[in-house]
Design goal:
Length: about 180
């Protein structure tokens, strides 16, 4: 009897949750698309390019110089028959620098990505505020990335929030033809 009551309670709970989810308005939104459409994004790009050229380029050059110096030190100490502890330390330093050079592209990419996040965070906040305003005005309770549409069966009630948010931010956008799927 307890199992029957529990099963019925679970079934009603699932039905209630399903009804509640169905009553929710779902919107799609990709903040990066809107951030990149902002006029201020051009300045972020210029600052990022400057960072990559000036800071990362200089850091790479300095790393190469350090590696060459470490390699020369190791070779000189080897020729001078320095103690094993010194040679091991020289070799360890040289290998660490070589590893950094080998993985420089990944290091630079990660540094660039971190710098982009830092530079674009004011834009992201601006976009987020506009999204919340539009979301509230349209009664949207759930916001998903456009890629999540593939997982939804019925997409008829999904609201594309990109255009209203762009308009809220003063970005000129072309409306998709009626009936066009949201992107």
């Amino acid at each position: 009897m307890k199992k029957l009551v529990f099963t019925l309670a679970a079934a009603f709970g699932i039905m209630a949750a399903t009804t509640q989810v169905q009553a929710q308005k779902i919107g799609i939104f990709n903040s990066e698309d809107v951030i990149q459409a902002l006029p201020e994004h051009e300045q972020v790009q210029k600052k990022l390019e400057s960072y990559q050229r000036d800071s990362l380029g200089k850091a790479y050059d300095e790393l190469q110089v350090k590696y060459k110096q470490a390699d020369e030190t190791f070779k000189k100490d080897s020729i001078a028959k320095k103690p094993k502890a010194i040679l091991d330390l020289d070799d360890k330093n040289r290998r660490e620098l070589a590893t950094q050079l080998i993985y420089w592209n990944q290091i630079a990419q990660q540094s660039s990505q971190n710098k982009y996040i830092e530079l674009s965070s004011p834009l992201a906040e601006k976009v987020q505020k506009a999204l919340h305003k539009v979301q509230k005005a349209q009664g949207v309770t759930i916001v998903l990335q456009p890629a999540a549409l593939d997982m939804l069966g019925d997409q008829s009630g999904v609201i594309n929030l990109i255009i209203p948010v762009a308009k809220e931010l003063g970005i000129k956008v072309e409306e998709p033809a009626s009936g066009a799927a949201p992107k």
